[in-house]
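Appendix B. Raw example, untouched.
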Amino acid sequence: MESDLLLKALIAVAPVLVLLTVFDRLDVFNLISLRDISLLTLAGGGAAAVSLLLNGQAMDGFPIGFSAFSRYVSPLIEETLKAAPILALFYYNRLGFKLDAAIAGFALGAGFSVAENLWFLFAVLDANVSAWLVRGFGTAVMHGGATALFAVISHEMTERQAEDAAAKYSFNPLLFLPGLAAAIVIHSTFNHFPNQPVLIMALTLMLVPVTLFLTLARSERATSQWLKTDEAAHRKALEDIRAGRFAESEAGRSLHQLVGRLGQGSAADAFAYLELKTELVLRAEELIRASMEGASIAIADADREKSSRLDALEQRLGKPVVTAISSRLGFTRNDLWELGRLRARIRSS
């Protein structure tokens, strides 16, 4: 009996976790850490626990029968719960590229499916191994794929905002509705074929990995090209700052006047802040590119010292001044994501 239960548990959780590991290894940029993947998996498990409670309560309020409920109500509840943590990551600018968005989404969906399958494992003791093959290779992979698709579509919808100046960014929840709708449709379609479990399992196991592999490959090329272009632009900007050309430009004169009007801090500190921030963004891009090329570069003492100086400049200028001048510096949401990722590495080192 124990060996049978162990086999069922292995079938229930192994396929989706193996796929998650494969997708993570395909991320040549190492954009998302093992710690973050673990946290997202745990968040998915938490979403599964909440969904079990909500589904139980909602089923009593919808006298439409289990079949109709599983097709039209349950997917809405479950995909919305799975989407919530990914939505929070977008809100706090923790997802820079489609690569990490796809992996984050699949990790959360994987955690959801593992928790759900483990619950069913003990709630439905008489289910045979064939039923668990369908849940492990079909339902679990569907959960991961649906949430990954939500994350990818959401990234596509918000990508232009990420490339604009961060000061112009305005979080718009409506941009995430197409991705959520797609995830719900996939989930509902899967639940429409309870009498053909092997067929729907085979289709899921074929379509989800292939779609994600193609998405990761396309995103890798796009990310590589974006990094090359952005790195060149930041290198040129840093040269202009150091040569004094930025100070003489319209943007530089506007920054000087703004600091003078605010009457706190100095123009010298503001320009030092701009130079240091540009240096660190460029350094972050260099580290991401090195990771893509297979190189392992440790955080240097110079990186820690620059990060500390940036903190000191922000304190000296004051939050109101930093907020005001940031609108003139032209950094994008992607730039700030790269900088945040670098400073997180510096803190952890």
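End of appendix B.
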